Amino acid sequence: MKLFILLIIITLCTIASRAQGIKEIIITGTVIDKETKELLPKTTITILNLPDSIVIATFQTNNQGQFSITIGSDKALLLSFRYIGYRSLSKELKTQSENRKQNLHIIELQKTGLTLSVVEIKSPIIVKKDTIEFDASYFNTRDKAAVEELLRKLPGITVDRTGKIIAQGESVRKILIDGKPFFLDDPSLATKNLTADLISKVQVIDQKSDESQFTGIDDGKREKVINLTIKEEKRNKINGNISAALGTDNRFTSNANINRFGKGEQMSLIAKSNNTNNYPDNRTSESPPGLNTISNAGINYNKDIGNKISLNTSYIVDENKNTNTIQTFRQNFLEDGTWTYDQYAESRNRTFANRFQLEAKYKIDSIQELEFATNGFLNSINNRSTNISESRNQLDQLINNGHQNYHTSGRTSNIFSSFSYRRKLRKPGRALSTAVSFGITNGNNHSFNNSINTYHKQGGEITSDSLDQRNILKSKEKFLQYSFALTESLLKSSNLRFSYIFTRYDNSPSKETSDYNYLVKDYTNSNDSLSNNFNNLSSFHVFALKVRTQKPKYDYGLGITYLYNGMKNANYTRKTKLDKDYKILFPSASINFPFSGGRNLRFDYSVNIQQPTIQELQPVPDNANPLYILEGNPDLKPARTDKLNASYSLINPQTMRSLSFKITADLYSNRITYSNYFDSLGRQISRPQNVNGAWNINSGLDQSFQIKFMNAKVSSSTAVGYLRSVNLINGKTGYTNNLTAGQMLAFNGDAGKVMTLGLDLGIQFNNLTYSLQDESNRNFSYTVTLNTTFHLPYGISLDIYGDYRQLTGLSAGYNADFLLLNAGISKSLLKSKKALIKLSGYDLLDQNLSVVRSVGEGYIEDLRTSVLQRFFLLNFTYFF
Keywords, A to Z (predicted)? Predict the structure, then answer.
């Protein structure tokens, strides 16, 4: 029934689009040589809008020089005919004629002797070596639409339900405004707060490292970023919006977004407060878990001081108050059967965070540059939870149940700074760079744990235990790093880079556990078995030698790295010490083929070394949940991942078709996984161990093409992955095999100025098998998302958003089948249309749910949390 309702809405939207859509016309004709009358096969025909001369389509004649083109437009068109060795010819075409078929008959091209007017053809896409540039004016968006809507229309770019941006198959983690960083490198702050009408160009850049950009010597490091260029007429002006809304059930929202972008100076202010889980910015069923009251504010400032100094700084403060009810059902797969854990919890959490960053670059002269960067945070938490739980064995017999109250509060602070110096030396291709970084992190947390657990033994015997404890956790981490790199030109097209990095970590965590003393009514009884004073001192020396060669048709890099890690662990409570060192030698390689026509093929091999965390090393039990106890392991070795990547991307500026394919393979050595032991009473003790035999393969294929007469993009994403992980359960070694596959189809387009339509269809498949028992689990997730706006007369707009989800194959009681339906009607005010009033409704059918499945090594877990349900908002917005 829910899917039927959504299909009716989609059908009505399609009918409305067709009724109000742009008229299609059929253009036919034949192209010949003017003198010889010979047919001209494969003549290029470019169709442009008038008067702006923007390309909307490109075609070719067949082998007989004939063409038949079907296109839709309500504007005058210009047809440009081009053939090698001939003068181009242009013909203007009126589309307002009632005749749907327009025969141009014979088009005659002349080799020489005829001077024709020149038509400037402005392509909406320009492909350079490391940059793809889009003309934002070509891709229509709604009035005052966010940048996120513009990105969804661009070939090769996808924005998923959570706002994550993928460009040419790679994640985008940084947005630049006119080449300047924007708000702590959080892309959503730009894509959700800035409006598309500010933007003239969107550039997708494979950005080189700061060192490469300054020296001009490519070190092979790349980061996918998006740069937004502000329109000239929008520069040096205040722009943005303020809004406020009140609703039913005491719901409210308020937003302020104020920007001023100049050539050498940028400033942005944002502020937001709401208790609607960020609605309307977030309209999907995947909103933050629980019921949230969110408040934040921030400032971003960029300034060029003369020609030598550039400054970037930002500061953000966040507060989140969360209440939640959580139902959890976990299945643990043991050799003799499946044990289950069922929990119901209520929580109230408050977090408060301050974040800042500052970057300053000083260009001493044409060959020297100095950079200073600092960032930090100050976070505090205050969390309370109550839960009840029970565990059952493979015979569905109750083996334990419990009740727990838990309260934790504390504060964490961090400061990090770095100085970098870069210099180009006299010899071309020779450069050096050096940097020093240091930081310190402090933590201080208090927790109170009050629980009662009952154990049901075979034969009917029942026992119980209880605890009432206070934990004081303190931590201090000091960080120091020095790096040096020298690059030397070998041949005309090659360079050799030597680098050395020294890193030192000094971690000193402590845990003081005390039991409640009922005589003095305070926590005075020290619990030495759960207390610990620990120190971990790690030093790293990394030497790397890399050769890089650049040819016109390809470039490649080869490298070798030597890592020495010395580790000293001291347990002052238990008076034990453990000193270890590791020596690792590993290679790296890459080759890149930047073909013409916007095509690129790349192969990479690299090695990643992951050090154990201080929590994984500290040998003290964590009994925050007495039925699930975690212990550290000071004998852990660093984990190694060998990574092999292959990728191919294509974007055609003429047809605006894009394709990207990527496959990655990870082979794990000494991977850190948890060894789990379950006793007869259902208590679980987990301890990290190093294991071998795990690997992971993932592949993804993204495609998109344009339907030009509808100003629409159709995109497809296919993903397949296979993960093999190692399980250690009750001394037995087993394997979990997880096959995942997903398919997404999306349509984003509009029918002139009448309607915009977005439609996403998705399916996700997961299949898990376990070697310790003949057990498999298969589940499906289906999604249908509709996002449409009708633009009615008198400045009225109607928004409809439908999000249908069906989850099957989960635990009993966790399968889901629901439709989240939102709608809103708005009216622009004032002659300038700078004001807007809107009435919107969230979850009109009152069906919203939140169900999540997670998969671990030897278990699956289904989780249901609280969600917002039906409410209405009346919103007023003013744009400036």
Answer: Receptor
CA 854 to CA 624: how far, in whole Å? 21
Residue 556: exposure state from Cβ atoms within 10 A (0-12, 13-18, ≥19): middle
Q: How far apart are CA 483 and CA 498, in angstroms?
A: 11
Range 306-773 has CATH code 2.40.170: yes
Looking at domain 2-109, which of 2.60.40.10, 2.60.120.10, 3.30.450.20, 3.40.50.2000 is its CATH number?
Answer: 2.60.40.10
For residues 73 and 50, is the Cβ–Cβ distance under 8 A?
Answer: no
Q: What is the pLDDT of residues 686-709, one digit of tens each?
A: 999 999 999 999 999 999 998 877
CA pair distance 855, 725, nearest whole angstrom:
11
pTM of the model: 0.82
Residue 323's identity, in one-letter code, is T
Phi-psi region of 249 (alpha: psi -120 to 50; beta: other; left: phi over 0): left
CA distance 773 to 335: 6
Collapsing DSSP to helix, strand or coil, 38 comes out as coil
Q: With b meaning 16 or more CB within 10 Å and e meaning fewer, what string describes 276-310?
A: bbbbbbbbbbbbbbbbbbbbeebbbbbbbeeeeeb
Q: Which positions ≥6 away from 81 have C-beta within 8 Å?
A: 31, 43, 44, 45, 88, 89, 90, 91, 107, 109
Percent of all residues in the chain with a pLDDT value above 70, rounded to a whole number: 93
Confidence of residue 833 (pLDDT cuts 50, 70, 90): confident
CA–CA gap between residue 816 and residue 270 (Å, rounded) = 37
The conformation of residue 151, written as its DSSP 8-state character, comes to H
Tokens for 774, please give them.
């003949």
Largest CA distance in the chain: 113
Q: Where are the domains of the chain?
A: 2-109, 125-235, 306-773
38, 723 contact by CB (below 8 A): no
Name residue 558's beta-bridge partners: 547, 589
Written as six digits, the tokens of 295 are 């408040």
**Cβ atoms of residues 379 and 351 within 8 Å:** yes
pLDDT at 8 over 50: no
Report the topology of domain 125-235: Ferric Hydroxamate Uptake Protein; Chain A, domain 1 (2.170.130)
525: number of Cβ within 10 Å: 14
- Distance between CA atoms of 773 and 16, rounded to whole angstroms? 55
Contact 23, 74 (CB under 8 A): yes
**Higher confidence at residue 770 or residue 826?**
826
Given a contact cutoff of 8 angstroms between Cβ atoms, the answer to whether 819 and 3 are in contact is: yes
Nearest to 414 by CA among 381, 440, 380: 440
- pLDDT band at 127; cut points 50, 70, 90: confident
Residues in contact with 694: Cβ distance below 8 Å, sequence separation at least 6, in sequence order: 668, 671, 673, 723, 724, 725, 726
Whether 675 and 683 have beta carbons less than 8 Å apart is answered as: no
